[in-house]
């Protein structure tokens, strides 16, 4: 099959690697130096690539209607149209649709007026959860116990300075507690089929300290999260959402990414995204035994018939991030060691990299590389990932040392 992939991150590198390993011919726009080693890179526009299947990686082009443009040309596309994409394009819209469908989630209020928002924050003792309404690359959320910090965050967001128009509405939510879980669900417009669960690490520093990022690492499978819990999440959160979409005339064909908190009252939705998670894809997709591209073709055609099957081995990915990420990432540093031959079971997925005129690999974005390793269990995968990343370096490289650590300790206990 000829497949066109839109995107340039670690998620797209992992998807392309899976497609290529099953013998598909892949063209990517805009791609990155890692993807360029295994697929054709197109100068764009994406709509002009001739392919049997179009896979759109990031949320922004989906929110902008790229899937609609392609479907108007009778192309088979993985990714919702502008209608379904509002789920990620507006947190206020997402919360509204979750309440109409009775899906378990944090209670919330929406504000556009700073005075009213501050008055609300003054009415209770945190923790405070404040979210920018529009797209903010995972960085528009503040969770804090400090009321003064919450008040200045809300005031800055509503001034439109922090995220421009995306920030002029905020959602203030009830704080939930528990372990987080990412469940990627393939959706063909009428049903959802879950992939193996993963866990992501959102904060920049160890022990979940520091600001939120797009994700600093991930692992799959997740100890303690078995088929029963996945079925419960599908039944209580995913199927009602798909039914609500159908009531509203939305034919959602693509990935529904459920971000959940496993609270003492059961799993509750933190958010839904409209695409594969990054870096969750890097640990979930390489664990799929059968041909993912074939299943995605069924997603785009409107009827999933093939069940994804998973290898029993575990995968861990550790993100190597640029100096200054997530607030002000610095680009330009020279990367060494990322293109050397790798041990068996290790892949380095590129994200924020570019090639200089003289052929050097340079840092060009916040999240730079994903060092991804497979092992017979999480402990072996984690050890191999950290051993392998020791060979890679660039100036002021940042990474977390505790990716999958507590899950390994839980397994040991
Ligand atoms: P989001 O962009 O909505 O996924 O939020 C980013 C991160 O903020 C989540 O992964 C959680 O770690 C945290 N978070 C979001 N909403 C809540 C909530 N209601 N209670 C506690 N933590 C939250
Ligand atoms: N890993 C979080 C996300 O993809 O949004």
Structure keywords:
binds glycine; 5-stranded parallel β-sheet; binds adenosine monophosphate; 4 domains; single chain; 5-stranded antiparallel β-sheet; Rossmann fold; alpha+beta; Dna Ligase, domain 1; D-amino Acid Aminotransferase, Chain A, domain 1; 413 residues
Q: What kind of sheet is the major sheet?
A: 5 strands, parallel
What hetero molecules are in the model? adenosine monophosphate, glycine
CATH class of the largest domain, please? Answer: Alpha Beta
Task: Give the overall pLDDT as a whole number.
Answer: 94
Strand segment count: 22
Coarse morphology: globular
* Architecture (CATH level 2) name of the largest domain: 2-Layer Sandwich
Briefly summarize what is shown.
This protein has 13 helices and 22 strands. The protein is α+β, with helices and mostly antiparallel strands. The chain folds into four domains: 2-81, Rossmann fold, CATH 3.40.50; 109-173, 2-Layer Sandwich (Dna Ligase, domain 1), CATH 3.30.1490.20; 179-301, ATP-grasp fold, B domain (D-amino Acid Aminotransferase, Chain A, domain 1, 2-Layer Sandwich); 314-412, Glycinamide Ribonucleotide Synthetase, Chain A, domain 4 (Alpha-Beta Complex).
Structure description:
With 413 residues, the protein is α+β, with helices and mostly antiparallel strands. It folds into four domains: 2-81, 3-Layer(aba) Sandwich (Rossmann fold), CATH 3.40.50.20; 109-173, 2-Layer Sandwich (Dna Ligase, domain 1), CATH 3.30.1490.20; 179-301, D-amino Acid Aminotransferase, Chain A, domain 1; 314-412, Glycinamide Ribonucleotide Synthetase, Chain A, domain 4. Helix content is 30%, strand content 27%. The chain has 13 helices and 22 strands. It has a five-stranded parallel β-sheet with strand order 3-2-1-4-5, with helices on both faces. The chain has a five-stranded antiparallel β-sheet with strand order 12-15-18-22-19. α5 crosses α6 (91-100). Bound molecules: adenosine monophosphate (AMP) and glycine (GLY). Adenosine monophosphate (AMP) binds at residues 106, 129, 131, 138, 141, 143, 173-176, 180, 202, 212, 259, 270-271. The site of glycine (GLY) has 8 residues, from loops.
């Amino acid at each position: 099959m000829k497949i066109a992939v839109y995107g340039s991150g670690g998620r797209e590198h992992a998807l392309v690697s899976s497609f290529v390993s099953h013998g598909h011919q892949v063209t990517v726009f805009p791609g990155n130096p890692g993807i360029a080693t295994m697929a054709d890179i197109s100068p764009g526009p994406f709509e002009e690539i001739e392919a049997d299947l179009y896979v759109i990686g990031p949320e922004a082009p989906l929110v902008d209607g790229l899937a609609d443009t392609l479907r108007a040309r009778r192309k088979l596309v993985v990714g919702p149209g502008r209608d379904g994409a509002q789920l990620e394009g507006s947190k206020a819209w997402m919360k509204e649709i979750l309440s109409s469908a009775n899906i378990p989630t944090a209670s919330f209020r929406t504000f556009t007026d700073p005075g009213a928002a501050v008055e609300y924050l003054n009415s209770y003792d945190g923790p405070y959860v404040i979210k920018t309404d529009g797209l903010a690359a995972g960085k528009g959320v503040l969770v804090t116990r400090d009321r003064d910090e919450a008040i200045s965050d809300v005031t800055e967001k509503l001034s439109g300075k922090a995220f421009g128009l995306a920030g002029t509405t905020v959602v203030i939510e009830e704080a939930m507690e528990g372990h987080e879980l990412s469940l990627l669900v393939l959706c063909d417009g009428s049903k959802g089929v879950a992939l193996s669960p993963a866990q992501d690490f959102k904060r920049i520093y160890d022990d979940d300290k520091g600001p939120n990022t797009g994700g600093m690492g991930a692992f799959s499978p997740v100890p303690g999260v078995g088929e029963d819990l996945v079925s419960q999440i599908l039944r209580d959160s995913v199927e009602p959402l798909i039914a609500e979409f159908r009531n509203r005339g939305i034919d959602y064909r693509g990935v529904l990414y459920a971000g959940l908190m496993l609270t003492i009252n059961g799993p509750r939705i933190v958010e839904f995204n409209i695409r594969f998670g990054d870096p969750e894809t890097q640990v979930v997709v390489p664990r799929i035994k059968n041909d993912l591209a074939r299943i995605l073709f069924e997603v785009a055609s409107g009827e999933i018939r093939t069940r994804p099957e998973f290898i029993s081995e575990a995968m861990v990915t550790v993100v190597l991030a640029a100096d200054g990420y997530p607030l002000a990432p610095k680009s330009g540093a020279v990367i060494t060691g990322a293109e050397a031959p790798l041990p068996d079971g290790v892949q380095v997925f590129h994200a924020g990299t570019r090639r200089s005129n003289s052929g050097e690999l340079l840092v060009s974005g916040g999240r730079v590389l994903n060092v991804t390793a497979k092992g017979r269990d999480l402990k072996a995968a984690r050890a191999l990932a950290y051993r392998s990343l020791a060979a890679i370096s660039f100036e002021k490289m940042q990474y977390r040392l505790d990716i999958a650590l507590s899950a390994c300790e839980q397994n040991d206990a």
